[in-house]
Design brief:
Layout: E1 8-13, H1 28-42, E2 47-52, H2 60-65, H3 70-94, E3 99-103, E4 112-113, H4 116-124, E5 128-132, H5 142-152, E6 157-162, E7 167-168, E8 180-181, E9 183-185, H6 186-192, H7 199-207, E10 212-216, H8 222-227, E11 234-237
Parallel strand pairs: 1-2, 1-6, 2-5, 3-4, 3-5, 6-10, 9-11
Antiparallel strand pairs: 7-8, 10-11
Helix pairs in contact: 1-3, 5-7, 6-7
Length: 238
């Protein structure tokens, strides 16, 4: 582990990371693929915490467009993250990685309540910790939950896992001339309105000088190379 620059990471996954080609639902094979990436770095001695979204199960915008109450839509999304977290926990446990699931909304039958000191202790004991149900409050995204939890557990970095190899000034799938950034400042991300994380999450990281690394988790070597300090993806920092 001596050659690693990050010893404790917060991995932010979208709900779509567990979905199949349709982008919806949970594909067990996809969950296993994500678990294998996490297991790889965990076995190197890195302490790993995870926050996962729920876009593969519920998109609150659909409800809002029909006049749904915002708080109700957000709470539905939080419950969706618990379902995804359970699927990922199962995939990790089946691969031999001890995992603990914590929820910001109390549901003791399926998850521990979120307790900061307990989460840190789990990490110190070599367990992967999955944080679900966002912050437990409506009007806050899972991006913000990831930034908040990362700071609470003293993570070295927030790693935003995507299916592209960094942050671009345009959608690289639509614009072949899109420029990829190797490094960005927090202010650059906010001013350019780049789709890294939402503005609340970026501002929170900026205030606490917590770096954000955006990379392609589906590149089999990207995460490992990033942990060793190689230039991978896009680093957002001061």
């Amino acid at each position: 582990m001596s050659d690693l620059i990050y010893s404790r990471i917060l991995l932010k996954l979208s709900g779509e990371a567990l979905a199949g080609p349709s982008g919806f639902g949970i594909d067990v094979a996809e969950a296993e693929a994500v678990a294998s990436r996490i297991k790889e770095v965990h076995e190197m001695g890195v302490e790993v915490a995870v926050v996962i979204g729920a876009g593969n199960i519920w998109r609150g915008k659909q409800g809002l467009d029909r006049g749904m109450d915002r708080a109700t839509a957000d709470y539905m999304g939080m419950l969706g993250t618990v379902i995804n977290a359970m699927a990922l926990m199962d995939a990790l446990e089946r691969s031999g990685v001890y995992t603990r699931l914590q929820s910001a909304i109390e549901m003791r039958a399926v998850a521990e309540p979120y307790i900061r000191r307990r989460a840190i202790r789990h990490l110190e004991k070599g367990r992967v910790v999955i944080f679900s149900a966002g912050t437990g409050n409506p009007y806050f995204s899972t991006d913000t939950a990831a930034a908040l939890r990362a700071m609470e557990i003293d993570a070295n970095v927030v790693i935003k896992a995507t299916k592209v190899d960094g942050v671009y000034d345009a959608d690289p799938k639509k614009n072949p001339d899109a420029k990829r950034f190797d490094q960005l400042g927090y202010i650059d991300v906010l001013n350019r309105r780049l789709a890294v994380m939402d503005s609340t999450a970026v501002s929170l990281c900026m205030e606490n000088e917590l770096p954000i690394l955006v990379l392609n988790l589906w590149d089999s070597q990207a995460l490992l190379r990033a942990l060793k300090g190689e230039k991978v993806g896009t680093l957002v920092s001061a």
